[in-house]
Amino acid sequence: MARGNKRLKAKKLLAGVIGLLVVLGVVFATYSITYADQIYLNQKLGSLDLGGKTKAEAKVELRRLADKYLQETLTLKDLKSGDNYSFKPSDIGSVFDIDATLERAWSFGRSSSPLTTVAQQFQSLFRPREISFEYVLNDGSLESKLSEITKKIEQPAKDYAIVYQDDVFALDTEKKEGLRVDIEMLKKALRQRIGSASTAAIEFSPEYYKPKVSEAKARERLVEANRIIQSGTLSFHFQTQDFPLDSDTLGSFVLSRPKGDDLEIYFNEERIKKLVDTVAKSIDTEPKNAKLTVTNGAVTVAEASIVGKKVDKEEAYLRLTNHLLERQKGQSKDVHLIDLKITETKPEISDNAIAELGLKELVSTATTDFKGSPTNRVHNITTGARALNGSLLKPGEEFSTLKRLGTIDATAGYLEELVIKEDKTIPEFGGGLCQVSSTLFRAALNAGMKITERQNHKYRVSYYEPPVGMDATIYDPAPDFKFLNNYGTYFLVQSKIVGTKITFEFYGTKDDRKIEIGESQITDTVEPGPPIRVETDTLPAGTEKRIEKAHQGATAQFTYKVTKGDQTLQERTFKSKYVPWQEKWLVGKGTLPAPTCTDGAQNGDEAGVDCGGSCSNQCPVQ
After folding, report:
1. pLDDT computed for residue 201 by the predictor
2. CA-to-CA distance for 132 and 138, rounded, in angstroms?
């Protein structure tokens, strides 16, 4: 009977357990189904409860909390002084990862392990779970902000120090406690506050600390420091140049700082490098090519080449600091000169390179006449020719006229003069430089160079004729005139101006190439049409002034062929189309007084052309 009762009780207990498990299973199944698309209960981030919210709802709430928190105030409270230091989370580059934070809340109760899933869901029913934001900080901004705050609080300890005075090092024996802040503690607390979106003040208390350097060790370092001075003079040395470092200079290099119970001697890197920079500036030299010219038909050196020199400043710094360290430790071997390591760079064109470069003879020449040019145009032609004079061209190198000329403005010495721009002839800096490029074009043709870029003018210009069609216009940045040195040797470009004529000469080494330049053929001539008159208030009524000449339109072309043996180096036809250009006049309709002209002034002088004499206002046409 007793045994039967025990069996009955066991069956009842088992039934109860099974019943409980069934109930719990139903409860958890219901819970899982109910929150299938919601975050399980009791998931909290600060004051924000994410439990029962869908992903979309939770994301909106997290974003709202993050945006608000970035504009909140974080406060560090100094318990010792009572001072508060405040800043915003955004000031230290706080960036919240909303998606990662949301995933942290959502994944709780949804583990890949069934047991973990049940355990987490059970926990979510009865115990709140604190989660924190996933975020990143700008470490540089955090360090800068804390440094800014601690500088106002901290006081460095005053310990033994080595100082230089009156040609000797002495020991400063003044000692004083210092005050410091535990920055790592502040960093950790700040990260916790930001993760939980908390604005609770972070309290801290700076700590005093005592100087630790022993007098015995400080005096040992004093002896070492004085060895640096007492070891005698010291100089940087290069060839015949010495750069002495006197006692005061050496003394300024030596510093000390506490290191545990000892003093550490170290060297002032900034001062030493500044000294090395000064020494280097007096030695460093850029390599400079020999400047070549032509004397009596032969290429000669006009200005000697210069070998480039550059001090290895890093090596100089290392040699000096190593020697100072040797002196400090008493290991110096009576060395008073520190040799500088110099890197030399040979110029591309040395004084004896004329024969090596192949600059043996005059290969080609070309001349144009700029007679009748205004003063500013003559000035610009001269300036441009001077800029190109002495240009060296490597084998296979392309010559760019604009690149060789450089900046074309007042700073380079150019004046304003007429240029053709779009459909107008207007004054700009460098007007007249097309005389330079057109002459250069013809010299390149005569040398058999490969022409790689050339553009004719919009209308015909008398300065470049005859022949018609052999002009080359330039205008920064385009068009440019370019040609390629297709010889196997260097070429020297020389320019000269005699009277009203500009000449370019190419010096190099001739080869057996044959150059054929056909005669210019003119077709499709077009008359410019009737003059254009434009009324203006700048002239007296009834007076006229011609501002542009008429130019006949035409098409001009010539052939160019360069051969070497059975090889054709270049064969092309240069075709130039010039538009007809109507004469333009200004017609006065104003009330200005009639002008007076001195002897020699020409009525109707073209703008920009000095015909002699002068006029007040404008010259009337008679």
Report:
1. 95
2. 18
